[in-house]
Automatic annotation (TrEMBL):
Chain segments annotated as coiled-coil in the UniProt record: none
PANTHER family recorded: HAD FAMILY PHOSPHATASE (PTHR47829:SF1), HYDROLASE, PUTATIVE (AFU_ORTHOLOGUE AFUA_1G12880)-RELATED (PTHR47829)
InterPro entries in alphabetical order: ACAD10-like, ACAD10_11_N, Aminoglycoside_PTrfase, Kinase-like_dom_sf, Ser/Thr_kinase_AS
Domain Aminoglycoside phosphotransferase: start-end pairs: 28-263
Protein name per Swiss-Prot or TrEMBL: Phosphotransferase family protein
Organism name: Aquiflexum gelatinilyticum
Amino acid sequence: MNKEPQGLENLFPFLEATLNLDPQSTVISQFKGGYSNLTFLINSPDGQYVLRRPPLGMKISKAHDMVREFRILEALEKAGYDKIPKPILCCEDETVIGVPFFIMEKVEGLILRNKIPEGMTLGKDYFQKLSKNTIDGLLELHHLELEKSGLSQLGKPEGYVERQVIGWSERYFNAKTNELKALEAVIDWLKSNLPKNENIGFIHNDYKYDNLVLAGPHDPSIKAVLDWEMATVGDPLMDFGTSLAYWAEAGDPDILKMFNLSYMEGNFTRAEAIAFYASKSPLNLENMIFYYTYGLFKVAVIAQQIYKRFTMGFAQDPRFSALIHVVEACGKKALTGIQNNKI
């Protein structure tokens, strides 16, 4: 973690007033690893908390709306869903740190990023169980009751698929830096092959290993799911398609293995993940090539947006310089998948 992040000086009196934390004994440090919204650890003798704020620079979009993410956590808590960090407070007053932010509890556990932590051994059996737990967790979300819980108010499911394809296409061209013909061909294909039927469910929209807090290196059960900023009510297969886009396999390009440890031995293949999901879902998964292609396209656009911020000087993280290669690899993989009808 990076210590003493800049721009948070006014946070100490705020924390003293709202959570009764002593400024002299409270330490704030930034978590590494994220590519978008910024996350900080608040450490004090009275407890540990996590703060979420939007990224630096560029206009805040829906995906970086901290107030909305806080409301989603509150709604999930009200709905009885317990795999979340408990939401504690939301601050819309921009005079505190310059942007809206929220604070939630810190959930202790293991988060797997792009490599196994040093000194830790996770075997084939661990990843096999983690694969099952991950898909089961996604199904649990997709099967949440919407009306009585109030979750239905968080999105507009009618026309969701078309809106997403058009919206992400617009975002790509707004953030475009390089000529990538394969990706633009994928955009045209998605617009021409929209599914006739839509499904409705609660969806996370960024569900992958590094957004899961696991019990530990000997127990891959899921304690909490993180990063709810893109959650809404829409088509669950769009959500699953995004998860599959992150679900790298051993034979995939190395650049696409930087987001998920799903390529390690023992994990489901994408085909096995689809079969497992299908065995527990009433949805028709015959057209998964569309949803997988959409997922790859969406991952490409997210990487493109971050890369654009990097080229404009709003983000200095050296990892961001490589994201244009992620954009290109996603475009090529999606186009090859369309041509071969293979996920």
